[in-house]
Every structure is written in structure tokens, then in C-alpha cells.
Amino acid sequence: MDYSEAANRISRKFAQGGQTPDVTKIEGKLRRLVDEFGVQPSEAERSVTSELAKEYNLPAPGSGGSSGAGGSGGGTQEKKIAEGVPGEWVTIEGKIVALSAPASASIAQSGIIADDSGAIRFVVWAKSNAPAMAEGSWYRIESAVMDEYKGVANLKVHSGTTIKEIAEDRSLIPTPTPIKDLRPGIGGVRAKFVQEWEANHERMLQSGLLGDETGTIKFVIWKEPGKEKLVPGAVYNIFYAQVDEFNGRLSLNLNAATILQEEGEIAVSGGEAAFTGAIVHIAPGSGIIKRCPVEGCNRALSRQNYCPVHEIQPKFVYDLRIKGWLDDGEKTHNVLIQRDVVEALTGISLAKAQEIAENNPLGMDEVFLQMRDAVLGRYITCHGREIDGRLLVNKCEKVAFSTGDHTALLNRAGGAPS
Question: So what's the architecture of 272-415 in CATH?
């Protein structure tokens, strides 16, 4: 875009009406819109033209006396949030349902704004000098930029944006979305907390799996003041969660979400998988393990009882698990089998494993060896949820095997991943 030519073109339009706009300022506004906000050059030129028309209390040149937004909005179109398209300048009316800490000094405010059509993340640039908005209040935001970042729409408030508080508290009843229909952005679900996972980061408060009648999805809550854990097995209405996408998989960030526990039950389905084959490899870290006893941690400890977050934990808690590979003849599946299923599959209870670990000269290694001998090469069917390439097993069944297939699978065991 030739900014100088565009600025002179805009200036000439108003010069015909006796106005003398500053060409340098016009060029600066055009550069900021295109270079900083990623606005299309034609849209930037139209926006600056409309802004000058508003400043001079004139109809925009060539507009026939209309400002293009029902007589307001500086030439932008008033829309519902769900109707906005990245690249447009829009005017919306919505409720601030969440505020979050700005990611940098260049941002004055950030959070989520919602109306009855949906919700969107917003950013208020510090240099816009916009008035601060309060969580729970309604606002009319005129001439904001609908932008896109990593495929997700967001709203940018800049120096040309007008923010007006709406005095009335309008009704806003968000509608949950079936998990299978979630898309990157902001969304809500009615779901059951079906599985809690071991936290794999020191800043993580809780992680696990939510499910409804249509499927399951991973969630995470990061440690922040006032944040609380969800209760396993409970049903929740969750609104205004951030729906992220990584490697083609969706997950929910619940830190800015509104979370309401409710009575009732959900028949969770979707995400279930079942594979039949032979256990061809038992990975290190299987058998009896020690876990951190600190509430909310549950991390597996090292042989020296060391937790990566809470350091040495002499009052550890014992647990059982099997990490291994199940070969179905066509594909090798990474499986993680938890305590109750391990006990049923191996015939070794937690109490028995603890006795072996504390009294046998080989200690915990003896438990590993006995469990390996009990399952390696055995045909089983594993049921569970497949998450990030691993089957989280909730039930196993022993299966009669074919001698020919059994030999072929064992011959492949030497090449199984470790």
C-alpha cells in the first residue's frame, strides 16, 4: 500500500468540503491499522475516512449521508459476536464475563466478552487510553477490530474505538455445546469429570478428562489465586472456557471459565476404544510405584522418594500401574493400566506388592518381575479412552489365543518401542 498516496486521496475528499485534514496524521493512522492490526488496506482507508467524517460532523464522502452503522459506530456495522468476521471493523454490545491478567505492558486489559450469540476474547491496547471495563458489566464497543490469531477470532480495542457502559443488566443465558461440536475459541459444555490425571507441570493445579453424551475432552486448570479443583465424578456446567487446539486435538483451559456444579448424571460416551492383542513389552516405571502425598500432586516419585515439585517425601503413598505395549497384529498400542485393573489382571494386590517390595531382597524390582511374568505374552482385550496416542485402560479381559498368532507376535516383541 502506498500510504502517502492513500493519505492524499483521503485529504482531497475533505478538501472539497472546505476541510484541511492533517495528511501526516492520516498516513500514520493508515500505517498503524495495516501494519499493527493487520487490517486490509481498503478497509483501513474506509475506516480513516469514516473517522474523519465523524470528527468533522459530516457524512462520509460517497456514503449518501449514512454512516453505515445505523447512524453510529464511525462507519462500522453493529453485529452479534458470532456474526463477526476477522478483518472487519465492528460494533458490538456485550457483557464482560471474565478478565485476565495482561500478557504484556502493551496491553491494558484482556478477557472475554459475551452476548446471546456467543463469546470472544478481547484485548485493549494500553496506548488506546480506553476506559477500564468491569467484570459483570455490559458495554457498547464501537469501531473495534475483529482479528484472528492462530485460527481463533478475537477483538482488538484501539485508539479509534469508543467504549460506552450500558446501565441495564441484561439477561444472558449461555447454552452449552456438545463436546463433539466444540471449535477453537470460547465455548461451554455440560460435562462429567470422568478421569483425573497426574499433573505434569508445577504450575498445573489439575488436569483430566471431561465427558458428555457425545465425547470426551481434556481440561486443565492452572494455579491462580482463588482457583479450586473439580471433584471427580461430579457434573458441571462450564461456560466461557478457552478451547485450544494442538496437533489436531482440542482441550479446555478453565481458568477464565464460569464453573457451576450441579446435581444429576451424564451417560458419558465417545472416545471409547477396545484393542485385542498380546502384551509384548512392559516398560520401566511399571509395577509398584510411590506417589507424592501432597494434596493435589500425586506425582510418581523417584527411587529416592523425590518429587520434582515437593522434593523429598518420606511419607509417600504406594500405587500400582503397568505401562506397556499391546500388539494387535497390525499396530502396537501404548497402554497405561491403573491399579484396580492391574490387580485383577496380575492377581497381585497392592498389599501383596507392598509386602514384596519391603521384604524381598530385590524390593520393588521383584514386583516388576512378577507382574511382567504374569502378563507378558498374554492375550487380552483392553478397554479405555485413547488420549494423545495412549490408551488409558479401565477394563481388561483375558482372551484365548491362537498358537500361530501368538508365536508371530512374540517374534515381534524384540522390535517393540521402549
Answer: Beta Barrel (2.40)
